[in-house]
Amino acid sequence: MNDATSWWGAHEVPIGSQLRLSLGSLDLWVQHLANEWRIARTRDPDPLRDERSLQLSDIEVLPDGIEQERFATDRPDAQLTLAPRTADRAFVVRPSAPLSLVAEDSVSFFCSTPLWLALSVGGAPLTELPTSRPNDSWFGDSTRVGQLCYAGRTAARLRVQALLRRPGRVYTEVRLINHGSDLLRIERVQLPLPHARLGLATDHTVWTPPVTVERQGDKPDADMKVGALAPELRPVGDGPRLAGSPSIMVRALSALLS
Fold first, then answer.
1. Is 250 or 236 the better-scoring residue by pLDDT?
2. pLDDT, averaged across the chain
3. CB neighbours of 76 closer than 8 A, spacing ≥ 6?
4. Alpha-carbon gap, residue 47 to 26, rounded angstroms
């Protein structure tokens, strides 16, 4: 059960047994008792920990202090389903060093965000949790106008070959297009992840569709669009969290990119 793709999907977990999953920085125990499922978890301090394993065994006594949840049910189902999801909020990524795009040019950079994990039994949802817990952030023009997001830093790799591939991460290509006559300084970019679905690459990394941010001339406007999954990606998990148009109009470029 250590195949790179075997962690998601349906798993038989009979009463008296447990499924233990290590994915990125997350260590998860899912225990099946009579009329009850218990979920316990810990996280490694390193959000980029390179760990992926899955094991079915008898229930073990967990160490004290581990965070646990209990779910009561009268369902006889022993089938636990694990599914990958995007973050449940938009994610603001900030390059570790400011990045500027020259006038009348375009470029792509690549970043990653934590993968969310959805657990269900017999089609009934139990819980969702991220492989690593990102920081909360407010994104908007003021403390009154905006939205609650997650935030994190990125190396903003300009070559996909330079990406460090880690389990428990979701990868996104951000395409920047500058039609202006001056430099476009990129200090942070908001990724509308709830509008995106997930796809699996041949190297077993999980990707969203590309996100395109296009500056309209020298005007303080930009279009942000969530594209389609690349044809070489195999769709995994459910569709986007938020239905409807994947196109988002951003009226204030300064609020989006600075």
1. 236
2. 87
3. none
4. 9
Burial 78-109 (b: 16+ CB within 10 A, else e): eebbbbbbbbebbbbbbbeeebebeeeeebbb
Which tokens belong to 72?
Answer: 């009561």
Number of Cβ within a 10 Å radius of residue 127: 13
The answer to whether residues 132 and 120 touch, using CB atoms and an 8 Å cutoff, is no
* Amino acid identity at 14: P
Question: Of all residues in the chain, what percent carry a pLDDT higher than 90?
Answer: 55
Amino acid code (one letter) for 168: G
Asked if residue 59 has pLDDT above 70, the reply is yes
252 by Cβ neighbours in 10 Å (0-12 / 13-18 / 19+) ranks as middle
Q: How far apart are CA 91 and CA 112, in angstroms?
A: 10
**Distances 85 to 56, 135, 181, 221 between C-alpha atoms, Å:** 23, 18, 39, 30
CA 186 – CA 215 distance, rounded (Å): 12
User: What is the model's pTM?
Assistant: 0.87
User: What are the b/e assignments for 7-24, b being 16+ CB within 10 Å?
Assistant: bbeebebeeebbbbbbbb
Question: How many whole angstroms separate alpha carbon 194 and alpha carbon 173?
Answer: 15
At 153, is the secondary structure helix, strand, or coil?
Answer: strand
Rounded to an integer, what distance in angstroms lies between the CA atom of residue 157 and that of residue 95?
Answer: 9
- DSSP track, 200-243: E-TTS-EEPPPEEEEE-TTSS-EEEEE-PPPTTSEEESSS-SS-
Sheet architecture: strand order including 124-130? 9-12, 79-85, 116-121, 124-130
In angstroms, the Cα distances linking 67 to 40, 47, 223 are 6, 18, 42
Centre a 10 Å sphere on the Cβ of residue 140 and count the other Cβ atoms it contains: 14
